[in-house]
Amino acid sequence: METDAIRQLLTEIRDSQQTLEHEYRRVANEALAMQREALELQKQAVATQQQAVAEQGRSVAMQAQFGRLYRIALAIGAMLVAGFVFWLASLRI
Questions:
Q1: What is the pLDDT of residues 15-62, one digit of tens each?
Q2: What is the pTM of this model?
Q3: Residue 64 CA to chain centroid, in angstroms?
């Protein structure tokens, strides 16, 4: 009789260990899937940041071009104003 109780107890222990092992595998697989998803999201974030940096570089280059054009237009405008002032001064004489 004692042998049957021991056998039943060992069977319950084995079944509990199998249940625990299945649950551990399920949780480990879920954790792995979440880590893979997080890695993919990080890769997408890095790609998006690289695109943003490239766009900022292009924006800075365009601002530099507009700055040069502005200085040129300002210089031409100043020369036109100076020429107009000299022309007006020459009319008085």
A1: 999 999 999 999 999 999 999 999 999 999 999 999 999 999 999 999
A2: 0.58
A3: 26
Cα(21)–Cα(29) distance, rounded to whole angstroms? 12
CA distance 21 to 15: 10
How many CA atoms lie less than 13 Å away from 8 in the CB half-sphere?
Answer: 5
Hunting for tokens 């405008």 — which residue is that?
A: 77
The whole-angstrom separation of Cα 38 and Cα 5 is: 49
CA distance 35 to 89: 79
Beta strands in the chain (DSSP E): none
For residue 11 the two structure tokens come to 């069977």
Alpha-carbon span 32 to 39, nearest angstrom: 10
Cα separation, 12 vs 31, in Å, equals 28
Amino acid at 36: R
